Amino acid sequence: MIHLRPATKADLPALFSLDQICFAAGIAYSLREFRALLRSPRTLAIVAEEDGKLAAFVIALFVRSQGEDGGHIITIDVDRDFRRRGIGRLLMEQIETKFRTAGAQWLRLEVAENNPEAQSFYAKLGFQAVGRIEGYYQGAVAALLMEKPLA
Predict the structure, then answer these.
(1) What count of Cα atoms within 13 Å lies in the side-chain half-sphere of residue 42?
(2) Residue 121 lies in a domain
(3) What is the CATH number of the domain that holds 61?
(4) Against a cut of 0.90, is the pTM above it?
């Protein structure tokens, strides 16, 4: 059974390790970046566990843009052994609920243009492409900026 809880500083090594597995060098976050994210009062981080094992996590930031409060999904990582079980969806629904409750007007994220599976996942959750960022990933791969209104 999957258990969701807020991430803590004690999770730092496991979060970092999973991110290194899920994303290529240069795209995965550094230990320093994870440490800064977990220390920030603007960060919302949720861990999914099963029998004490890290299955997945999501990290997002509270942001303000053009006079509106919103959320920016920094990363969502799901261990390969736990994929296709709805855990990513569960985490995204939980983060959306928390942002909506906090008064956020929207959620945004970036996804690699060459990752149609992830794009489809986000589209099924109600995200729509609203822009494109050239060379976002390692200066070579464009990102689609996707957004979901919460209001």
Answers:
(1) 13
(2) no
(3) 3.40.630.30
(4) yes
